[in-house]
Amino acid sequence: MNGSTGNRDRGTVHLAVYDTLADWETGHTTAHLARAGYAIRTVGPSTAPVTSIGGLRVQPDLALDDVRPEDSRLLILPGADLWDTGDDLAPFARKARQFLDAGVPVAAICGATAGLAREGLLDDRAHTSAVSFYLAATGYAGGGKYVETDAVTDGGLVTAGPTEPVAFAREVLRLLGVYGGEVLDAWYRLFHDSDAAAYAVLQRAGAA
Predict the structure, then answer these.
(1) Please, which of 73, 104, 147, 204 could form a disulfide with 11 given CB 3.0 to 4.6 Å?
(2) Are the C-beta atoms of 188 and 166 separated by less than 8 Å?
(3) pTM across the whole model
């Protein structure tokens, strides 16, 4: 199926939120998943409000301990300064392991990829990030699986670097079957390249 099927209930996608989260990295992903019928629920370390890099104050819907893979279609982990300044966000990487072990996909961008590297989740999966030496600094064993590209999906895990929020969304939309084929290609060309010709493809598919 190449296009969106409207706003029917497709289940819940969980978006991790924590202090210093990078606002710009997951907006395309969550907006288009919501338009396709997914409920987006935010997950924090607790239900106390968190503040993004851009000063956006977010009240999490759920605490991390209350999130179960069986209640979710996807866990999204944005980047954040906290991924590189201590172990505060390590519980989110451990939750990602629970999701992947249960067969529920995970999507990680920017600093979250380093968190997953420290957790050992990139050792046996093709992946990408900001640059290879950023992940190498974690001491992980997956350097041979690093791919120099915009975004990668392997073994139920999507990874991308901080400058690729549109490619990150493309991989998630493909993984969850929201768009595919020429429609997904057109979606990416429109939002990444500002290709006006792509809009006509999306209109014909009812996905504009």
Answers:
(1) 73
(2) yes
(3) 0.94
